[in-house]
Amino acid sequence: MWIAQEIAVKTAFLLRAAAAVLCFAATPVIARPASAPQLKVERVVMLMRHGIRPPTKPNVVPAGYTNEKWPSWPVDYGLLTPRGAAGVKLLGEADRFYYATRGLFGPGCPDAGSVVLKASGKQRAIRTAESWGEGFMPGCPAAVSHPQDGEADPIFHGLDDQPAWFDGEQARREALALAPKGGIAAEEHAYRRDLLLLAHVLDCALPACQALAAPNRLVAVPHGRPELEGPLDIASTASQTLLLEYLEGMPMKDVGWGRVSRAQIEQLLRFHPLKFRYSNRPDYVARAAAAPIAKEIVMALSGNTKLTLLAGHDTNIADLGGYLKLHWKVPSYPADDVPPGSALGFELVRDRKGDRYVRAFYRAQTMDQLRTLTPLTGKSAPFRQHIPIAECGNSVAATACTWTSFQVLVEQRQPAAP
């Protein structure tokens, strides 16, 4: 008898426990707030910097900065290296996977006209677009449109011809207004420790190396962007060269002649966005330089092309960053720096009601992913960060910037007609 009673009691207990578990498991489902509306990616535009290249000229720094011979490269000055092409191809493969998983592309070759590749007239940009296409759509037609030699390049190099309507002195005044208290001399003081590190790498010791003691100044170009002259400018070029040597996979004994570490390269890269601050990001400069690119982006998002790649240069991305007041931070790089192969992108997305929004993002490889040509899959996928669009909302909130607001913002930022 007591056995039967014990069984009945245990059975009742188990039934109550099971009911409690079911109730507990169901409660979060009932209490969970409604999820955000699902967004469908309709179109994408990416403004991408070219891949790894050697220096663009024989003398990386002027006479007096170093007597060292710079390492040799497998291609001529300024051209995309085979390793650079391989790194960009990896990005193409990763981008295809990313947008395939979001339903923008299926297997096989994309439909004709659904992917458009445009490039600056520079070989390194053209080859970057071609290499990215090889990764994104292997074995498929991937024609790249670009200016021919000698042709004007209004999209990527609009200020290079120094148009008569552009006021270089106004550009310089706006740039100087961005300087800290004490002007450009204060920047030199703030970066003194980094300049001394660069002097060590270049084997350019004070007082014998008077070049590093030269003053820095911001010079107005009559119809062009302001130019930073002096050690800060030289440091930007030299640090980029050290970075490119590292990314090219050169032995560390050859990177900076064995006098610089991986961490010190990252430290010296601070000079690169510093130069962008004065030559690319002043409002007057950015609006003039990036206006054609911004119009291209709106046109591409307005059309039928699913993905548009604009292969250009770090200056283009810095200009567009200033135009839309965008900021980003790639791991292993300073804030607002533009790594080789990285891209500033824009997605046009649609919710279930049919409302459209624009999201800005930054996509890049880290230094070591590119140096080792790491396949960009799984946990090694490229860095991707949604970034706020000033005056149009935070792109982390997917529905912050409406498509209409983005179009209005781009139009309002266009410079007045000359």
What does it look like?
The chain is of the alpha/beta class and 418 residues long. The protein has a single domain, classed as Rossmann fold (3-Layer(aba) Sandwich), CATH 3.40.50. It is 41% helix and 13% strand. The protein contains 13 helices and 9 strands. The chain has helices at residues 2-31, 82-101, 123-136, 168-176, 184-190, 192-202, 231-247, 262-268, 271-279, 283-302, 314-324, 367-371, 403-413; strands at 40-49, 115-119, 144-145, 217-221, 224-229, 307-312, 343-350, 356-364, 383-387. The strands form 2 sheets. A 7-stranded mixed sheet has the order 3-2-6-1-7-8-9. The N and C termini lie far apart (103 Å). The relative contact order is 0.15. Residues 1-31 form the signal peptide.
Concise summary:
The protein is of the alpha/beta class and 418 residues long.
Strand percent estimate: 5-15%
Q: Structural class given helices, strands, pairing?
A: alpha/beta
Look up the CATH topology: Rossmann fold
Q: CATH superfamily membership, which one?
A: Phosphoglycerate mutase-like
Q: What separation lies between the terminal Cα atoms?
A: 103 Å
> Which descriptor suits the 3D outline?
globular
Counted beta strands = 9
Radius of gyration: 26 Å
Please outline the major beta sheet: 7 strands, mixed
**CATH second-level architecture:** 3-Layer(aba) Sandwich
Compressed to H and E, one letter per element, the order equals: HEHEHEHHHEEHHHHEHEEHEH
Query: Runs with pLDDT <50, length 5+?
Result: 1-36
Q: Taking strands numbered 1, 2, ... along the chain, how are they ordered across the largest sheet?
A: 3-2-6-1-7-8-9
Reading off the top of the CATH hierarchy, the class is best stated as Alpha Beta
Total discrete domains? 1
Family: Belongs to the histidine acid phosphatase family.
Keywords: Hydrolase, Signal
Signal peptide: 1-31
Protein name: Histidine-type phosphatase
